[in-house]
Specification:
Elements: H1 17-22, H2 37-50, E1 58-60, H3 65-71, H4 74-85, H5 98-110, H6 118-125, H7 129-142, H8 149-153, H9 157-164, E2 169-174, E3 183-187, H10 191-210, H11 216-226, H12 230-240, E4 247-250, E5 253-256, H13 259-272, H14 294-301, E6 305-307, H15 309-317, H16 323-351, H17 362-372, H18 376-379
Length: about 400
Amino acid sequence: MAIISEISGKDGTELPKAWIEACTGSETQVPSASTDIFHLVRESASNFINSQPEPALVTVNGEKFKEYVKTLDIATFDKYVKNVNSWSSSLPLVFDNMAQELNLIALVDLLQLGSGFHSELHEAIDRGASDTIKFGCMSLHISQTSIDAKGLQELTLGDISEHFGIPLLGKERPMQKGSTAVTISEASSLRPLAEIILGTLQDTGCRLEQAGFSSLADFIIRICAEKPTAAHLVAKLVSAFPSLRDVSEVNGQLVYLFKKAQLMAYDVCQRFGKSDPKFAFPDIDQMTIFVDNVVPAMLQHHGLITVSQEIQSKISRGEELSLQETASMRAASIVAAQSVVDSANEAAKSSGVVFGQTPICQATLDSFWWREGKEPDLRVIPRLIFKKTVYF
């Protein structure tokens, strides 16, 4: 499969600047085909957290995990995981065929970004980032807008504004001080988000077409036909698409996170794994959490990770974190999640405890913590903000 490395849109036009700046992993060397990609993510996160200079930006609280497992409400765990896992099968849409449905689900996961614009989105359109993305993708489908490889390249910023409901213009102000005869509109604070979405779609469409794939669904179907594992699909996704190459380089150290690529593989398995063996990935339990801004907040709430006073002050004031601070929180979340999984497995071995209908692994913990974070009393917990990213 060919990999296109240049950052350019259809006919060589430059992609939106906001996307280029947010796509920080675009030049990162991708893992080789033989790499155990989930092990790579866990190992890089652990190495990064363990090599922090003192005082550490984020601490993983090792003594808390066994107690946390004991207090887990298994009925609630099963309920929340089932709720999150069912989203793709409960879309209020009609599809012509499986490939069309797969394409839309993959598009939603490709665009799971914009969490840093949470406040601006709620103020402007009364939706969070995830709902904005789902709403926009459904609008594209309902309007019969082409979202194959060619169609993605032909989308405009106006299309993104229309379908996702993101305003491009902000408040009007007088062109001359003291005069209201002529006014000009400022750019909306959400315009960079619209540009990041547009760049993600245009770049993905360009790379699909140049590599010989008709759509994102076509890519996934053909890759999974080669080898029906989540690891194989994730490795191919991050290799092919910079918008999924979720790697942070901090002080010369690479932290592999791959949030959206793992989420895409997980959702494909949940939706189609029971009906098509090439999507019945046997290695789902090896995935790491799909860490965004919600999971670290829940881990802090449960006392499983502790952040430095400087980070906490920024979060409390609603200020944007640095790349290093953001990477530290996300990496620590992966380390903490694995410790919860290990503690649950140890408890099951030593006492024969049964943890309900849903096996506890990092992927199911992610679903649980993400849904838990939507509860009204926990939704108000301040979360990290990092806007210049295409990865969450």
